[in-house]
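Worked problem 6 (solution included).
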Amino acid sequence: MTDPEVAGRAAPLLIAHTPHTPSPRLRRAGITALAYFHLTKPRVIELLLVTTVPAMILAAGELPSLVLIVEVLLGGAFAAGGANTINCWIERDRDQVMKRTAGRPLPMGLVSPRRALVFGLVLEAGAFGFLWGTVNLLSAVLAVSAMLFYVFVYTIWLKPRTPQNIVIGGAAGAVPVLVGWASVTGTVGAPAWVLFAIVFLWTPPHFWALSLRYLDDYAAAEIPMLPVARGTAVAVRQILVYSVVVVAASMTLPIVGDAGALYVGAAAILGVLLVAQAARLARGFSPERAIRLFTFSNTYLALLFAAVAIDTLVRAA
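Solution. The predicted structure is:
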């Protein structure tokens, strides 16, 4: 079945058209364009970019050039979108088995695998060239290194083989803070590595909470996520442990970086809330509590990095 035929089935077309009704060809083109957009996993990109700008602000000690911010965000979006697209290409068969991912463009047949792969590679090459040309080489290399780690180390090697997959593989999602820091300084300093560690340690409890909610999906796809391989009891205990550790890591930023009382207060309050959510899940597991923790973990990371930015700007004023 060709892509247009599947696209047409995904969005039935009206036979009669008024001058204001898009033609079937135009509607299919719109569906295809939207499918390519969803291949990049825009929600994941949004979260990655949320950590990039605060790292830039902390590195600069003030608000960097808006032009630089736009360049870094655009290049970072291309790099993350390319990595996510290649991930979708690799996992298209597993995605078809899982209810949570069966509606993605490749399992639905909205984009052919070959075109998806080409699209991902073009995005990645574009990201490297754009960041090198507008920002600096180190930022470009770091952005592409995240893709290579995500695709080859996490997706291909770790994910189908070990319940520690997301523990190690989470490093890819922490690289954007290094890209942000390097874009301003041309190097990677100690505070950047603390921010990296925060995202790195935050990733396991964040993703394990999601995998608890979709436990049957991961089991059906034979992906050894921690709750599948070791059981829910082990998973909720590990989520609590990692939540405590990530909060402890967040409190080290004032030691190695220039962080003030506003950040410390925000980190403490957010940390208490995160650990409380994890403790509640550990006391009594339910899919609803798991997804509630997953959702709050997104809020936690976004607000924590917002505190980094606001604290820096307030002290610079």
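Discussion: The radius of gyration is 21 Å.
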